[in-house]
């Protein structure tokens, strides 16, 4: 998915806004041990925010799926048969749902099936709840 001329975005640990760069070279193999891909990119650096040898945090967008249903990763519970989440039904009780997951980011997991848009997914206390248990919850968007 990486191509010459594609865009990367990066920033240093001090923060600030993302800076855009353009890929001009990359290694064709991914390091199996670290799961990393080495690439080189150029960026104007007009304000001299970045110095040679400085570490930066890079973001490379592989693709955008507008209709992806994403939930926080802490709400996903791995099981032998797959994954599950707990949702709150219309009566305010916990319901267990088997889900299939897709793409994963650093904080979110895509739900491919098992949960519908608008379902209330529990993100805290998931190890203490059981199906049918009434809960009090705060809805966070």
TrEMBL record:
**Matching NCBIfam families, A to Z?**
RND_mfp
Query: Pfam families, per this entry?
Result: Beta-barrel_RND_2 (PF25954), YknX_C (PF25989)
Which residues are in coiled coils?
A: none
Q: Which residues form the YknX-like C-terminal permuted SH3-like domain?
A: 68-136
Question: By its UniProt entry, which InterPro entries does this protein fall under?
Answer: Beta-barrel_RND_2, RND_pump_MFP, YknX-like_C
Instruction: Name the family the entry cites.
Output: Belongs to the membrane fusion protein (MFP) (TC 8.A.1) family.
Tree of life domain: Bacteria
Q: Which GO terms describe its cellular component?
A: efflux pump complex
What name has this protein been given in UniProt? Putative efflux pump periplasmic linker ttgA
PANTHER family found in the cross-reference section: BLL3903 PROTEIN (PTHR30469:SF36), MULTIDRUG RESISTANCE PROTEIN MDTA (PTHR30469)
Q: Which GO terms describe its molecular function?
A: efflux transmembrane transporter activity
Q: Which SUPFAM superfamilies match?
A: HlyD-like secretion proteins (SSF111369)
Q: Gene3D superfamilies under this entry? A: 2.40.30.170, 2.40.420.20
Q: What are the CusB-like beta-barrel domain coordinates in residue numbering?
A: 14-59
Protein's organism = Cecembia lonarensis (strain CCUG 58316 / KCTC 22772 / LW9)
